[in-house]
Amino acid sequence: MLSTFSVLSPHLKFKNKFVSIDNVAFKFHYRATFTLLLVCTLLVTSRQYIGEHIRCITGGSIPEHVINTFCFFTTTFTVVRHFNESMLQDGTIPHPGVGHMYADDPVKYHAYYQWVPFVLFLQAIMFYGPHYIWRTIEGGKIKRLVEGLRMVEVSKYYTQSNAITFDSKYTLYPKAELDKKIEVVCEAFHKHIILNHLWAPKFVLCEILNLVNVLTQVWFTNKFLGGRFYRLGLDFIDEDFSGTMDVLDTIFPKVTKCHFHKYGPSGSIQKHDALCVMALNVINEKIFTFLWFWYAILIVVSVIALIWRLITFIFHARSEKFNSFVFSAVCPGMLNSHDLSFITNSLSISDWIFLYYLARNMDRHLFRALFRGIVQKFYGNKTDLEAQSAKFLDTANEENELISEKH
Length: 407
Known about the structure:
With 407 residues, the protein is mainly α. Helices cover 59% and strands 9% of the residues. Helix 9 runs antiparallel to helix 12 (280-315) and helix 13 packs across helix 14. The longest helix is centred in the C-terminal third of the chain and has 36 residues, at 280-315.
């Protein structure tokens, strides 16, 4: 089995990247679900475990490979009134949905099994789409800022005058250039504050696309399975599987019928009634049942992510306690009350999210140094936030004195 899925390994190199530009909900979509659907695609196209996808038998002289090919590429069907567990237990019918039929008997045609691998692969691409869109919009800004400071902590102990480059990726700067590098990153963040006010709305749009996409895939899968997907998981839970027929047999029949017409010796059209064993549905029923539960989890995760984003929109500029809680998770003990006041009162939601992802991708001591540089740049190179706070207090006191004089 491992050899079968090993063909995916060159294309699924999900490493722990140094730079993170999204959240857990994104990874549920473009990593977990994308990989899961590719594995399911490979599984339904493999003949190693179930043999031929369809095997048909007839009472005539039609070669087996001909009837197999014909019934797989056209459609098979089941008789609706024969989905009757009592008739099955009594021996009136041999299989669920299979039995003697009259001209006016309603039948249910099955052609979805031809399209299952294509649908699963298309869904995998769709789940990767929002991440690809966001990665294109983000444009590597965080990566360029963070990677420029990866070796800063080590540089503090490097006393030589020349820079050293490792593996053509990482550069160890001498102490003399350390402050210049931090200044460059601070300047880049300051430009982001001025020019990128739509950064957060675009990020939230991609988060919404994640939820819209999974809801669309649930709707599409339901249409694909003839309207039986919405309740598939609930029916599966309610089923006790103690009888000779279960709910999965009605959606993914294991035995179906197929009519093949050909000319007889006298030139008249002969109809051959074939009975087909649908081995592929043994795999299909398990895949789509699992996907029902997985999509339910994915919807919950996506909704929670949007609720959290709404909370950040509301409280990022209102509550220092909220900002203390969020940034303490990524850089514990590095921000004081004046820093939290700056984050709460001075940053837009785009700047807030951008600063949060900088904090997530940097060493906490390094982020502290960078944050002080950002504050200085924001306040015109003022080195102490207490001076700014004192200014606000003086203004408030003057206003109170004026009010007192009027009274």
